[in-house]
Amino acid sequence: MSSFQTLLETSLKTYCEERFVQPEQLTDRQWYQFIAEVSQQAVLQSFPHNPPLVSTRKVNYLSMEFLIGRLLGNNLMNLGVYDQVQQLLAKCGKNLVDILEQERDPSLGNGGLGRLAACYLDSMASLSQAAVGYGLHYQYGLFKQLIGYHGEQLERGDAWNRDFYPQQYHRADLQQKVGFGGQVVHLQDDKYQWQPEWEIFGEAFDLPVVGYKGVQQPLRLWQGYSETDFDFAVFNDGDYLHAESRVIDASKLTKVLYPNDNHQEGKALRLMQQYFHCACSIADILRQHLAQGRSLEQLPEFEVIQLNDTHPAIAIPELMRVLLDQYELSWEKAWSICSKTFAYTNHTLLPEALEQWDQTLVAKLLPRHIIIIERINNELHHLVKAEFNEDEFAQAWYETAVLMDNRVRMANLCVVGSFAVNGVAQIHSDLVVSDLFPAYARLFKGRFHNVTNGVTPRRWIRQANPALSALLDQHVKGDWTKDLELLRQIEPLAKDPQFQRAYQAIKQQNKQALAQVIEQEIGLKVNGEAIFDIQIKRFHEYKRQQLNLLNIIATYQEIKANPEQAVVPRLFVFAGKAAPGYFLAKQIIQAINNLAATINSDPDMQGKLQVAFLPDYRVSLAEKIIPAADVSEQISLAGKEASGTGNMKLALNGAITIGTLDGANVEIAEFAGEENVVIFGHTVESVRELRANGYNPREYYEQDDVLRNAIDALTDGSFANGDQHRYDALVDNLINHDPFCTLADFASYRAAQQEIAKRYQNQTAWVESAILNTARLGAFSSDRSIRDYQTRIWKKA
Ligand code: AZC
């Protein structure tokens, strides 16, 4: 008997004895608790850290978000004990899949950036890449989304770990102290002393990340607290309210994740969170480095600090501060260490997401750091002066300065302070160089790279799609879970009728399962024969859910006008959250829900058209939707979606992409073959032309009857219970501004949708395309991304 089996059986005996019950009497919740506790023991016992790879440094992955999803099923699988647990449960008349549903989804992220961090932790552990993930232990993760009576988004708090969350350890031994405010005393020359006005403690919670047959290593999350209940000195002075407010500040610090995706809000508390995250993490990195008897000069030889976008940018001046003030290194020495240690990943070109902090605010909260940033800015000034001639200088400085117009430009700070900068898909990395940082690219040659994103096949195929996994196991030699390129082996089977039938049957089974979820969640009975057309992602104008919406309205109108005409039945599924303060995105959600209500109750639409909005999109819901998709909507305006990762998950699970030439869609089309995706819309270049010629959305509105009728339906009360003004802002934005060229792409999108319907009618060809998507997209495994990081960025010098 394996040691895990023994552990399982003896622990079950004890667990039941303590509760005076027989195993058969345990509730699902108790089973969940029991299995979670045993698996945590197994995680800690059976997986010593592997020796680190010699060719790469240890990775310290700094991210404000880790959207890890449920852990129990994933851990059981990666430990290789999933089947054993399943068998034990089966003996007691239980199903493991149901038990796993008991776990709360820790929603410690907003979307793509946070989920990518989680995939990377999985891949690093699976590839024995030594790594620690550093993040924040938010008390409330991303809000829970409900849909209100009028179809509108409502938000509720998500206290993800309040009652029971066994996968984490409180590491009381890893406490840190973080200062804020106060003043800086200039001692002499380069020597300064920071006297913070107040201090907050950070305590760590470790979540072990279990790699696939690999190592376990920590995701370390910091939480703020205050040492004393309140400041007695101030209290004794009689200023009771002030005394207590300090305590409130400390506990408030990590209370909630900011719910913005691709948008900076600029709140002081957010900057405090960022600094707190960085200060705790930098101290922890140095502690471990020095504990191994290594010198500060050796830091870049052994450690790399990977910045997940600019949210942890303040780590750069923080490391400088520690080296200068605490270890008394010279500026030159400190900078030489620092600039060889950091690497920065850019995830967006959207101007509203590029973080810039008010310089006065930074100076007030972090007075020592602003002095360091000023010095960095001055040194940079010399470099730019030396590289650019007089005619070029003004423009180059405007582009590269870290400090400009009382703003601290965090992306610039990252580029200056890092030895490597990368974008997240080829087209995006090219735009980072050509549009965002052209002057830097000239100044720092060789600093810019591309690492195309990837997704972990353990969660997104093995766990989410067990039926497809079993089929792949049957036909692929070698462990495809570890080496996704092995899926190429099924390419010759794409035309094999027997394999096609098996593949198709699995898709059908997954669609039935999703149909059940839809019925449970929103009470809609869907047509399992329809094309399942899926758009799941954050709601954002640039992602253009409104384009999908307009096409659905046009389709509805067309069916209404020609009730006799044959239609390829279609189910449109949406899921996603909008930032609570993002009015237009919320209007789009409401419009979809109102449209769904009208369409789903119209007898003329029966068997032809349905719309489902599934509330509270999160990792566990994605795992249910993705395996059931026939069509994957990736319809952002070209140049706006840095990469996308949902596009990869959906395509690997056999959905056909309808998409623009944006982000990783471009590479997906290359790998899958152009004939196995449907591409439409303007390209980066043609968008440029469109704008250069003075884009006027109203012209499209006026000239295209189908488009105009669709938009007008939003203002005639059809989808708003007679309210003609509900969508005024949305409609005005589309007709008069349309910053993401929705109207310009409408006709071509509609044609692409007709192409999808046409192709779906030839099921043999459709399944062949779907199989080829699975077979050819192995490069989008996050294991490949991590290997790219290893060879391009994390290698030892
Ligand atoms: C996202 C990008 O929008 C998405 O295209 C990409 O796939 C993902 O990062 C992972 O790289 N960006 C964000 O979520 N947020 C920010 C601030 O970029």
From TrEMBL:
Presence of the UniProt keyword Transmembrane in the record: no
EC numbers on record: 2.4.1.1
Record bears the keyword RNA-binding: no
Catalytic activity field: [(1->4)-alpha-D-glucosyl](n) + phosphate = [(1->4)-alpha-D-glucosyl](n-1) + alpha-D-glucose 1-phosphate
Organism: Frederiksenia canicola
GO molecular function, one term: glycogen phosphorylase activity
Record's protein name: Alpha-1,4 glucan phosphorylase
Names of required cofactors: pyridoxal 5'-phosphate
Similarity-based family: Belongs to the glycogen phosphorylase family.
Pfam families in the cross-refs: Phosphorylase
GO cellular component: cytoplasm
Biological process annotations from GO: glycogen catabolic process
Record PTM N6-(pyridoxal phosphate)lysine, positions in chain: K649
Enzyme class: transferase
Keywords: Allosteric enzyme, Carbohydrate metabolism, Glycosyltransferase, Pyridoxal phosphate, Transferase
